[in-house]
Write a structure and sequence with these properties.
The complex is a heterodimer of chains A (116) and B (115).
Chain A lengths: L4 E3 L2 E4 L5 E6 L4 E9 L5 E8 L2 E4 L8 E4 L6 E5 L8 E9 L9 E2 L3 E5 L1
Parallel strand pairs in A: 2-11
Antiparallel strand pairs in A: 1-3, 3-8, 4-5, 4-9, 5-6, 7-8, 9-10, 9-11
Chain B lengths: L2 E3 L4 E5 L4 E3 L2 E3 L5 E8 L6 E7 L7 E2 L2 E6 L4 E6 L8 E9 L6 E3 L3 E6 L1
Parallel strand pairs in B: 2-12
Antiparallel strand pairs in B: 1-4, 3-9, 5-6, 5-10, 7-8, 8-9, 10-11, 10-12
Classes of the chains: A mainly beta (116), B mainly beta (115).
């Protein structure tokens, strides 16, 4: 059973470009979470999605950031017009859909975004 | 809102010795989970140990154990027989047992292991 997959692992963008980060959850998991880790800081919750629905986006900046989890395919975190302050590691985690086993999120390896 | 506090930015331990990392949290929920994650330089988040709040017994995983004090809202991690490979950032995390199940992380403790 493959774990949570994220790609790319490293992404370099120039200021003003768009960044697209992808996350494929574990098999059988339909809950996806995105977290951001700024340099020398802990992980901060950004958004929680289920298939075709955003459940909680309270941690996501109101502008330039968006997320989706379509019926088919991976979850996408999109950052438009990137700025240097967006440089961070972005982690995706998934949670089981089965009631009674919602007790641990499984993390992907992260995408390190560098904005030049 | 829930909060997680790690008051030790950095800790050092001699190889083969024991070290305890502190974590306190605040919540009004009665049922929740607490976690310790290890983050080595590779940045991968590695689950070290998990504690269910409804269980009074402290969780143990080999050399890692926790001291869970629910009334005091304290959740410390003890690492016994420290090894060089234990050197990493350690994050304490909280997850409610209902609702959105999102994690709330502490700011982390950097553990150095001295040979």
């Amino acid at each position: 059973n493959a774990g949570v997959m994220q790609n790319p692992r490293h992404l370099v963008r120039r200021r003003g470009q768009e960044a697209r980060l992808r996350c494929s959850p574990m098999k059988g998991h339909s809950h996806v979470y995105w977290y951001r880790q700024l340099p020398e800081e802990g992980l901060k919750f950004m958004v929680y999605l289920q298939k075709e629905n955003i459940i909680d986006e309270s941690g996501m900046p109101k502008e330039r950031f968006s997320a989706e989890f379509p019926k088919e395919g991976p979850s996408i975190l999109r950052i438009q017009q990137v700025v240097r302050g967006d440089s961070a590691a972005y982690f995706c985690a998934s949670l089981s859909s089965r009631q009674g086993v919602k007790d641990t999120q499984y993390f992907g390896p992260g995408t390190r975004l560098t904005v030049l | 809102a829930q909060t997680v506090t790690q008051s030790q930015p950095e800790m050092s331990v001699q190889e083969a010795e024991t070290v305890t990392l502190s974590c306190t949290y605040d919540t009004s929920e009665s049922d929740y989970y607490l976690f310790w994650y290890k983050q080595p330089p590779s940045r991968q988040m590695i689950l070290v140990i998990r504690q269910e709040a409804y269980k009074q017994q402290n969780a143990t995983e080999n050399r890692f154990s926790v001291n869970f004090q629910k009334a005091a809202k304290s959740f410390s991690l003890k690492i016994s027989d420290s090894q060089l490979g234990d050197a990493a950032m350690y994050f304490c995390a909280y997850m409610g047992a209902s609702g959105t199940y999102k994690y709330i992380f502490g700011t982390g403790t950097r553990l150095k292991v001295l040979a």
